[in-house]
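Archive record
______________

***
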Amino acid sequence: MKWPEKSEALEYHGEIAHDKDFTSPIMVFKTDKNFYELSNHKLPTKFYFRVRYVDQWQRFSHFSNTAKVTFTQTQTQTNEPAPKAAINRGDDFYFLGFAPSLIDSQIDSKKISNTSQFALLAGGQKKYHDSIHHLGLLYFPFQQNIEGALSSLDYRFHRKSDSFFWGPSADLMNFNVVYKDKAEISGTVLNLGAHLGGETLSAFPLIWRVDLQASYDVKGYQMKADLSKRLLSTSEYAFLTGLSYRYFTYQGGQYYRFSSLGLQLTLEK
């Protein structure tokens, strides 16, 4: 506690009390300085204090105006390193995962596959200034009454606003399959569209995204939806689980339809 210095003061006398009338002081002190250190005293969080001085002829001045003091607790500094905080996984990371999936596909009116497979996921995400670029590879192998695979290179660009994001997206799909009567189907389709999503859904901490795209030659469209939750997140990695859905149609001489519903398990590093 500090107060203005008086040149004629030989010593300062101070009082501390619960009430501003000082009916029952809880502490008195003397000092030849114009301040007094209270760090080693046990005092209430709120109290009043006043001070007066004594000159060389032992004459007392009037008490100063009453001051009110309120203590607030501060964190004690230590030399121990602070624990690592969980980083925002919306910035830079690589990911690898898989999705046990129910897959259904059709050519014209003939169903060619209705099976369960494992879709593989791999890719990365980078943040540049206020924008985020996401590039992912999705691979569906077929093994039942159809041979081959469907692969998809997915690109997303978005900006974030608090827990909400949006932006354009593109998807380059390649299907190369042979079904049981040895008819071969192959082709490459470029889909362009937009997506939106967020990090909360109905007040729950869930990551969601919806993507709607049309083929560059406007002969088909694709809809994708993801819903996931971080089960574990540290400064080094994050583990997510959730649901993913994809519906794709294209007509290039024949009508193709492909859909999948998967339980997505992903590790981010």
